[in-house]
Amino acid sequence: MKQSSRWGGALKSALVVAAAGLATSSAWAQSADPAPWQLNMGKGVTHTAQMAWEAHMVALWVCAVIGVLVFAAMAYAIFKFRKSKGAVAAQFSHNTKAEIIWTVIPIIILVVMAWPATAKLIAMYDYRDSEMTVKITGYQWMWKYEYLGEDVAFTSRMDRKSDQIRQSGAVPTMVTDPHYLLEVDNPLVLPVDTKVRFVITSDDVVHAWWVPALGWKQDAVPGFINERWTNIEREGVYRGQCAELCGKDHGFMPIVVKAVSKDEFKSWLAARKPAAATPEVPAPAPAVPETAPAQPEAALAPTASGA
């Protein structure tokens, strides 16, 4: 009796947790960054992320409907035609009409899903008309960002606080810092409402640059240049990580993107640029040495001794 009550309490707790998760899943889905126990992918802060979310939701609902129909048909067949009620299995080899139906309908579903998904995929790689270009280079285990044409470049590593906690032996679940292992010393700063082109590569092994709120992920491959773009619609701080196993410290390559207004970005960029060297004042020209006046040739001629 005690055991059954214990199981009943555990089941009740599980149902409460599930209900709470379902109640808040829609709110979590609106956030830019993933949240603990999030039940759906977020909409992100770019048009690219929105397109990915829409394609995901179409596929999700199509699969949900198919799943409901299939399991409902299975349940009906199991209980309606069970042997205990004397059901006898029908004997037939095939049904042409049924075979046509279950071949044509999936093809139609795939075409309906693939057509808009293909258009979205093409748009995700259309980096024409970009207003600025940022080069991203992956290293073991950090990122380097170069604002091409602006003479601004810096590296971005996991922040010192996270590194100290990591090496202290603290239990990760007991760390109170909400951005543990997700904070960096130098975030990538980008302006909002600006189409930014990325050229992505690596200096050593394969990495992958991934910020979920931007709606895409791109491998950084040594010797190759991959191109993507983004246009962030909302100011904020968005976090990601390296998404390709790249060595022993792969889990310590966070990415932080800080989206700011265009005016704030211009000020930040101007402050990051190296100060122009002030030209030195040229030294005065050396004075021309004075020369003795020329003497007549007669004075220069040797005189005869004993004259």
UniProtKB/TrEMBL annotation:
- Matching NCBIfam families, A to Z? CoxB
Annotated catalysed reactions: 4 Fe(II)-[cytochrome c] + O2 + 8 H(+)(in) = 4 Fe(III)-[cytochrome c] + 2 H2O + 4 H(+)(out)
Cofactor note, please?
Binds a copper A center.
Entry EC no(s): 7.1.1.9
Alphabetized, the UniProt keywords read:
Copper, Electron transport, Membrane, Metal-binding, Respiratory chain, Signal, Translocase, Transmembrane, Transmembrane helix, Transport
Q: Could you tell me which residues belong to the region Disordered? A: 275-307
Endpoints of the signal sequence: 1-29
Q: What is this protein called?
A: Cytochrome c oxidase subunit 2
List each coiled-coil range.
none
Instruction: Spell out the PANTHER family in the cross-references.
Output: CYTOCHROME C OXIDASE SUBUNIT 2, CYTOCHROME C OXIDASE, SUBUNIT II
Q: Where are the transmembrane segments?
A: 58-79, 100-118
Q: Which InterPro entries match?
A: CcO_II (IPR045187), CcO_II-like_C (IPR002429), CcO_II_C (IPR034210), Copper_CuA (IPR001505), Cupredoxin (IPR008972), Cyt_c_oxidase_su2 (IPR014222), Cyt_c_oxidase_su2_TM_dom (IPR011759), Cyt_c_oxidase_su2_TM_sf (IPR036257)
Taxonomic superkingdom: Bacteria
| Major location category of this protein | membrane
Originating species: Stenotrophomonas pictorum JCM 9942
Where does the record place Low complexity bias? 288-307
Q: Name one Pfam family in it.
A: COX2
User: Where does the protein end up?
Assistant: Cell membrane; Membrane
What is this protein's function per UniProt?
Subunits I and II form the functional core of the enzyme complex. Electrons originating in cytochrome c are transferred via heme a and Cu(A) to the binuclear center formed by heme a3 and Cu(B).
Which processes are annotated in GO (biological process)?
A: ATP synthesis coupled electron transport
Q: Which family does it belong to?
A: Belongs to the cytochrome c oxidase subunit 2 family.
